Amino acid sequence: MAETRFTGTERYVATPDLMMAVNAAVTLARPLLIKGEPGTGKTQLAEEIARSLERPMFEWHIKSTSKAQQGLYEYDAVSRLRDSQLGEEKVRDIRNYIVKGRLWEAFESAVQPVLLIDEIDKADIEFPNDLLRELDRMEFYVHETRELIKARHRPIILITSNNEKELPDAFLRRCFFHYIRFPDADTMEKIVRVHYPGLKSELLAEALKSFFNVRDTPGLRKKPSTSELLDWIKLLLAEDIPPEALRDSDPKKAIPILYGALLKNEQDVHLFEQLVFLNRRAGR
Amino acid sequence: MLVRFFTDLRAGGVPVTLPEFLGLLEGLEARLASMSPEDFYYLARLALVKDERHFDRFDRIFAEHFAGAEKLFDQLVTELPEEWLKALSERLFSEEDKRRVEALGGWKNLLDTLRQRLTEQKDRHEGGSRWIGTGGTSPFGSAGFNPEGVRIGKAGSRQGRAVKVWEARDYRNLDGDVELGTRNIKMALRRLRRFAREGAPEELDLDGTISSTARNAGILDLKLQPERRNAIKLLLLLDVGGSMDPHVNICEELFSAARAEFKHLEYFYFHNFPYERLWKDNRRRFSAITDTWTLLRTFNSDYRVVFVGDASMSPYEIEQPGGSVEHWNDEAGRVWMQRITAHFPRLVWLNPEPEDRWKWTPSTAITRELVNQRMFPLTLEGLDRAMRELRHRNSYTPRNVS
After folding, report:
1. A172 with B190: Cβ contact below 8 A
2. Where are the domains of chain B?
3. Which of A14, A114, A207, B330 would be a feasible disulfide site paired with A50, CB 3.0-4.6 Å?
4. Out of B30, B55, B190, closest to residue A28 by CB
5. Contact B9, B16 (CB under 8 A)
């Protein structure tokens, strides 16, 4: 185990409050609930923690149909029924039909793992409540085989949420909570530097300027976030756009080039076109 | 001191419980935050606050407590030997910074000015009528921080930075009690969607199961499909004209954006109070009118009704025939309101005025009584309560008023 404290990685810029959150959650063995605007690196955080602390990582992506039970184990009754019709030998042992879930796999890990429960708010409203005991005691009972499964090491649990549903109080009480704020200009510069170390300062400054200008436009439906900025810069580099081209693209006068990476729906593009049109007329 | 902080948080509306408080103590014991006030602030927020809507309240209460703690700190400073302070500033500041600090009359002075300026600005701001309307721009941004252009170096004072973290109140827009604006309209939309959806349990897809079992040579293959329902019908009645217009626009946008989630969404306008006529097009409000009786006949009782209006007017406009400011109404507004509430058992009134001001306007009190106390402020939290109210079945037994 190389590191015991998380201080960000060469690919991930962590603010002091985020470092505090991760280290507190690791030290006190509490699940850490992460919220924030889409595209601020919630999911990536888990990967980076696993990488920097050198732990195995288990991901459990939640969908609207996910059930808490699926994270523990599933009893595949249908295939057992089918096997019984075919007269297979393995039908006699129920163990053959118990399918392990991500939580079980994490519990079995030989070293302390990182478990990511991604987008917990997508699931049914009862979902977090069904996991209370498992997260608290780190154990669960398999009724079919009458086994008690206990975690060998308490996993570092990260839970992300996009705020689509309110989470139950009893669940929140067991977690630490951190809200990733949208990075300010300085942090953003660091983040871009981390991803594109060879980027010319001039281009970066201009790109950031027009990016924050776009973000500040009132009335946008989906504000571009960090991941969109990174995509955009990648495009700018791929197309070999000189910084001068960006300088003229003050969003008040023209839509930024390659805006497709920043604006994700036609209403927003439309809004921009209107603004540009109005400003041109006013400038005349 | 920490226990008082805990009770103050609870009193201030941050829902903290004992296990969470113990979690904070555990963290302090594990020496997670030992040296700087910033660390302590981050740890406390992490352990005690579980929703970004409460960050702003937490910041305010934290600031109050920290102000007290700082007085202790000042006492310490006066007692501290000068060499110690010097050594500290040697370590923290560059030469340039120190000169700048000296020019401003020492760093204690600097801190005081800073804090004074912060309070000044807060007072001036809160002295105005409302925070909203600034578009959510924090008055304590970098420009707000130094209104006269006094530039404090980046390594300026650790203390100064620390004060800023929680006094900047960056999370104000996330507070659930702030009025709806373009910033939190997205959140409001989510509340509405949640209201419109009634769960998505899976149900057996019988046809699919039969056909896929047949294709599977008679071996059972179950197929499930998500259940779909959106049965909510909504009728919006909006007060237009004058001061209400911006709020009404927000509401209209809000509900139209959520339109796909409702089975039906209809809206009508009125001015100040609903009487015998309503209209759909504001430009033709005197020609293309809808009779309120027609409205009551057209939309049956399973429509939910949402009124949006500030309900502040002269009480005559509700109580007297002919009280309308626009036309002669044969029957008083009160009668019409009673007919509407009797016809639509599920009904709420959203009021953009802050809740604590309602009691000062008699007409608001009357309206509130007419809608059977189902008046809610136009905030995220109020919207939540209103939607909860609308979801209830039989929350209100209709009276017979003809």
Report:
1. no
2. 2-174, 233-391
3. A114
4. B30
5. yes
Query: Which residue pairs, CB below 8 angstroms and at least 24 apart, start in A14-18?
Result: A15/A181, A15/A183, A15/A187, A16/B38, A16/B39, A16/B42, A17/A178, A17/B42, A17/B45, A17/B46, A18/A45, A18/A178, A18/A180
CA angle B48, A166, A12 (to 5 degrees): 65
CB A71 within 8 A of CB A79: no
B83-104, pLDDT tens digit by residue?
444 544 554 555 555 565 555 5
- Assess: ipTM above 0.85: no
Which member of A17, A64, A169 has the closest CB to residue B200?
Answer: A64
Q: Across B166-296, where does the E strand assignment appear?
A: 202-204, 224-226, 233-239, 264-270, 277-279, 289-291
Residues with Cβ within 8 Å of residue A272, at least 6 apart in sequence: A217, A251, A255, A259, A263
**Model confidence over A169-205: pLDDT tens digits?**
888 888 899 988 888 888 888 888 888 887 888 888 8
Among B32, B45, B202, the residue with its CB nearest the CB of A65 is B202
pTM for the predicted model, two decimal places: 0.57
Please say if the pLDDT value at position A123 is more than 80: yes
Among B23, B45, B171, the residue with its CB nearest the CB of A30 is B23
Q: Which of A27, A174, A178, A179 to mutate to test the interface with B (most CBs of B within 10 A)?
A: A179
Place of tokens 């809808």: B290
Question: Residue B103, Cβ neighbours under 10 Å: how many?
Answer: 9
Measured from the Cβ of residue A5, the count of other Cβ atoms closer than 10 Å reads: 11
Residue B17 at interface with chain A, using a CB cutoff of 8 Å: yes
CB contact under 8 A, A175 and B50: yes
Q: Which of B35, B50, B213 to mutate to test the interface with A (most CBs of A within 10 A)?
A: B50
pLDDT of A86 higher than 70: yes
User: Between residues 93 and 132 of chain A, which touch chain B (CB distance below 8 Å)?
Assistant: 124-125
Which residues in chain A are contacts of B43 at CB distance < 8 A?
20, 24
CATH 3.90.1690 fits domain B233-391 = no
Contact A20 B43 (CB under 8 A): yes
Does residue B147 or residue A208 have the better pLDDT?
Answer: A208
Distances B381 to B54, B175, B334 between C-alpha atoms, Å = 12, 9, 28
| Chain B: residue whose CA lies nearest to A35 | B52
**Distance separating alpha carbons of residues A255 and A273, to the nearest angstrom:** 7
What DSSP letter does each residue of B119-158 carry, written as one string?
Answer: HHHHHHHHHSS-STTSTT--TTSHHHHSTT-PPPPTT--H
Sign of the four-CA dihedral B344, B347, B352, B357:
positive
